[in-house]
Design a protein that fits this description.
This is Protein involved in plasmid replication-relaxation. The protein is α/β, with parallel strands linked by helices. The chain has two domains: 3-82, Winged helix-like DNA-binding domain superfamily/Winged helix DNA-binding domain (Arc Repressor Mutant, subunit A, Orthogonal Bundle), CATH 1.10.10.10; 107-207. It has helices spanning 3-19, 24-30, 36-45, 68-74, 84-99, 150-170, 183-193, and strands at residues 22-23, 50-55, 61-66, 107-118, 121-135, 138-145, 175-180, 199-204. The chain has a five-stranded mixed β-sheet with strand order 4-5-6-7-8, sandwiched between helices. A three-stranded antiparallel β-sheet has the order 1-3-2. Helix 6 (150-170) packs across helix 7 (183-193). The longest helix has 21 residues, at 150-170. It is globular. The protein starts with a helix and ends with a strand.
């Protein structure tokens, strides 16, 4: 195998490792593979390293993820199991990653551990965001909102209020970013966020 081809394959495997589940068109865009036939040819050459399944929420487009050989090639220990209930969540997050220009510091499923004062002692509280990245030196916490109840979103936002107070004392004020399934959900989330002092951005699918 030519070194150039090997390098490209490893970059694609690393993307799958970092993002979890990625559709054909997303791989095509992220890696600038040109037209669809070229993308399909490249992925065909890599089939020994990949699982692929059609995903009907995206009109049967194939979604790829690493098999054990693919993980071995790049030294990954992250094994992912297909679950149709969560695939669209992954793909929406990928869409937003592409919208941002594929930042190199984009990390999915990050945990933020807060030490909150409770009387004379401290208690630990954990926030798990869908992705974390930086813009102009400020941390951006991404939440992908698809089917979550608004009461759950409200609880999550309350946690971010506490986190923001701690983070902005040490760093630039963080930004909470919601990417949601439709305009109706966008308006509902904006209504909650407008009642806080948080810096925030809210996008619907139609916005990107």
């Amino acid at each position: 195998m030519h070194q150039k081809m090997k390098n490209r394959q490893e970059r694609i495997l690393s993307t799958l490792d970092n993002l979890g589940f990625v559709s054909t068109s997303q791989i095509q865009t992220i890696h600038r593979l040109g037209k669809r036939p070229n993308t399909l040819r490249i992925l065909k050459e890599m089939e020994a390293y990949l699982y692929k399944k059609p995903f009907y929420e995206r009109n049967g487009e194939h979604v790829y993820y690493l098999n054990s050989l693919g993980r071995d090639v790049i030294g990954s220990t992250k094994e992912r199991k297909w679950s149709a209930e969560v695939i669209e969540h992954y793909l929406m997050r990928n869409d937003f990653f592409i919208h941002l220009g594929c930042p190199s510091d984009f990390e999915i499923e990050k945990e933020l551990v807060l030490n909150l004062k409770a009387g004379l002692s401290y208690r630990e509280e954990i926030i798990r965001c869908d992705a974390l990245y930086k813009r102009s030196g400020a941390l951006h916490f991404l939440e992908v909102d698809r089917t979550q109840s608004m009461s759950e979103n409200r609880k999550k936002i309350e946690k971010y209020v506490k986190a923001s107070e701690i983070i902005k004392g040490q760093n630039k004020e963080p930004v909470i970013v919601f990417y949601t399934a439709n305009k109706f959900r966008k308006v509902s989330i904006e209504r909650i966020l407008n009642n806080t002092q948080l810096k925030f951005e809210v996008y619907a699918r139609e916005d990107i």
